[in-house]
Structures are given as C-alpha cells and as structure tokens.
Amino acid sequence: MKPSHKGKHRYLHQISHKRINPPAVSAQTALPQLIDEVFLSYNAGRLREACRLFTSKMLAADTTVGLSLSGALTPAGLGASCLVPLVEAGFIDWIVSTGANLYHDTHFALAMEMHQARPGLDDLKLRDEQVIRIYDIVFDYENLLGTDRFYRTLCRSEPFQKTMGTAEFHYLAGKYVAAREEKLGQKGRSLMAAAYHAAVPIFTSSPGDSSIGMNLAALQLEGSALNIDPLRDVNQSAAIVYDAKKKGRSGVLILGGGSPKNFILQTEPQIQEVLGLKESGHDYFLQVTDARPDTGGLSGATPQEAMTWGKVDPQQLPDAVICYLDSTVALPLMTAYALSQHKPRKPRRLMDRLDKLMAALEKEYASARQGEKE
Question: For residue 19, what are the contacts with CB-CB under 8 A and spacing of at least 6?
Fold first, then answer.
C-alpha cells in the first residue's frame, strides 16, 4: 500500500533538524549568528554542530576537556590567536600535542619572527639564504638555532636533572618559557606559558619526535641526568580521565589525528582493558580532520569505530561530531564562537593535583588486582 503524503510529511519532520531558510548575510551579521543560522549543511553544518557541542555540552562545569594537537598549528600563529585564549578561559583542562607544536610555540615566547609567504617558492634559493619553509610560512634558520640553544641551556640546569613524564617536563619548562616571554614583552603569545600559568598538563605522545626531543637526546650524550619516561605519561593521562569520569564527564577535542589522537583516546582502553577498572569511554568526541576513514588509518577513524575499542561511551554517540575541515579554518571560528557564547570556567589546575590523581588510580588498580587473585 502506498504511504500517505501525510505520513511521509510526519517522518520528514522527525528526521529534520530545521528548515533551510537562512537570513541574508549582512554587514551586521555576527559570527555566532553566521554559524548558527547560515552554516546549515555539509561540512559547514558539521562545524555548526561542533561549535554547539563544544560550547553547550563540553564546557559544562562537570566536564573535563582534553585537547589533542597535530599538524603545524603553532607556526601558523594559532597558539597565540586561539589556544592561549581557550586555556586562559578555562576551556581546556589537559593537552596532548606533538613536540613540534611546542617547539615552534617557543619561537613566539622568544620574540622570534614568523612570516607569511606563499607556497611554491624556490626551495633551493631558500636553502641558500638559510630560510626555512612550512608550506606558506617562512622564517630565519636562526629561529631553530636560537630555540635549540634555549632548550639546551635550560635543560642543563639543576632543576631538570631528574626523570620526568612529558607533562612534568613541559610544566617545568613552561615556567621558564613564561618568564622569558614576559621579559621580552611577549606575554600571551605562548601556549606553553599559558598552560604553566593555568596548571594545564601538556603530554607529548612521541617525546623523541621533535626538535625538543632531539636536543634532550644531545644532552644525554653529555651525561645529563634528565630522562623522559613516556610510560609515566600513559598512567598520568589515564588518571586524569578516570578522575574526570568518577566526578563528571570527559570530552575530547581532537585537532587533526595522528599519535596525539590515539594517545588521548587510549586512556579509556588503558583504564578498562589493561587496568581492569570499570569504565565506559569518553562522553564527548569532537574531531576536526581532513583524513578519510576508508584508508584504515587512526587519523580518520570515526567515533563509532572508537566505540568498539571502549574509547567512546556508546550511549553518548549522538554527542560525537567529526568535521571534515582544515583545523586552521575551524579552530578560529570555534574559538570565537565559544568565547562569545560561554562565560570563562574556573581552571581545574590538574598539574597541581596530578600526584593525587595518580595515587587514586594506583589504589583502584591494586584493589582490582586483589579481586582477580581472590
């Protein structure tokens, strides 16, 4: 029997978010209105969903927000323009970043110049002139040499002569980066400095895979006692998420993919599968990526796939958004939207409580192991 037109109309309204009937964009159209009322479909629609999920749910008082960073974001100025304001507003509680983003972030604290250019420059000429290129960003080779000197000098000092996880290392280094930033009149330019002031932990999932790690490796050849313990990072990040889920919710904002994405998500399998503690996955999953899922890579893996690993709570899949867009486009829009639509949150200052969070996780794990023996 052919369905009635009335029945089809009812179903249409069940699946519809809203009618496509946007206002005309004018010189007076504010950015939140543009996103809410004009970004209606395709990846513009997903960006609208991302902005709303982040602002209306992930920034709730009981939600701990983790951020993962991959791709060359800080060289493009997105640390100073977007990430620092988000940290200062209390919108980011902990971070997993590539070491490269932190290394290039340090250029801004040291008042080193980065310049806009264009792609397709003569790279042989650039090499002869000692100019470094990241696509359409160029800067003097001395930026690398000067930043290398800064980290080698800093990390030869007595406070660094011990074993640390990357969060502990970046917090300690951030103290000195912040001091140098302020001395040079660059306050508010560095993500590492902002994270230090707000006690936001920054983990690096591959600590040897950046110029910071390369310089620490050189110091090891000198006999330095500084040692980075990546296994400590695994447990500390899991402790943060376990505490977040016991007291409220956990949300992840993933810019790009790669190792930082895996590291921020593997906290849940670490808790559930390895430590044997009862948990159900992150509550909110928000990713901006240009990677496809059909290649099988982690960068493009969907929250539905992550759910099968225990990384995302299956009951929360409606609160999962993937925006297939360049992070350099999405992040400024999301930042402006969030800052205009949500008041600042009180910083959680997780670095101040990291030892207590670890002690709690150790206690729960010991209890679970005792239960296995019995």
Answer: none
**Cα separation values, 195 from 189, 260, 354, Å:** 11, 17, 14
Residue 371's φ and ψ, nearest 5 degrees, are -65, -35
Looking at residue 14, what is its pLDDT?
80
| The 202-203 sheet, strands edge to edge | 202-203, 94-97, 63-69, 249-255, 284-289, 320-324
Whole-model pTM over 0.85: yes
In one-letter notation, the amino acid at residue 370 is Q
User: What local confidence, expressed as pLDDT, does residue 6 receive?
Assistant: 58
Q: Which of these, 215, 224, 212, lies nearest to 161 by C-alpha position?
A: 224
pLDDT digits (tens, 9 = 90+) for 336-372: 999 999 999 999 999 999 999 999 999 999 998 887 7
Q: How far apart, in whole angstroms, are the C-alpha atoms of residue 215 and residue 152?
A: 6
Say which residue the tokens 């209390």 belong to. 90
**Residue at token pair 């964009």:** 25
Q: Give CA–CA dist 83/249, Å, rounded.
A: 22
For the chain, which domains are there? 29-37+47-115+166-220+230-373 (3.40.910.10)
**311 catalytically annotated:** yes
> Which are the contacts of 167, defined by CB distance < 8 A and separation ≥ 6?
94, 201, 202, 203, 233, 236, 237, 351, 354
DSSP symbol at 207? T
Listing DSSP states for 33-98 in one string gives: HHHHHT--SHHHHHHHHHHHHIIIIITSTTEEEEEEE-SS-GGGTHIIIIIHHHHHTT---EEEE-
Q: pLDDT value at position 169?
A: 98
Residues 6+ apart with CB under 8 A from 306: 265, 281, 285, 312
Provide long-range contacts, Cβ within 8 A and 24+ apart, for 156-159: 156/219, 156/222, 156/224
* Active-site option among 311, 346, 363, 373: 311
The whole-angstrom separation of Cα 257 and Cα 130 is: 31
Neighbouring-strand partners of residue 133: 138
- DSSP letter, residue 316: G
Cα 113 to Cα 259: distance, rounded to the nearest angstrom: 28
Angle of helix 99-109 versus helix 141-155 axis, rounded to 10: 100
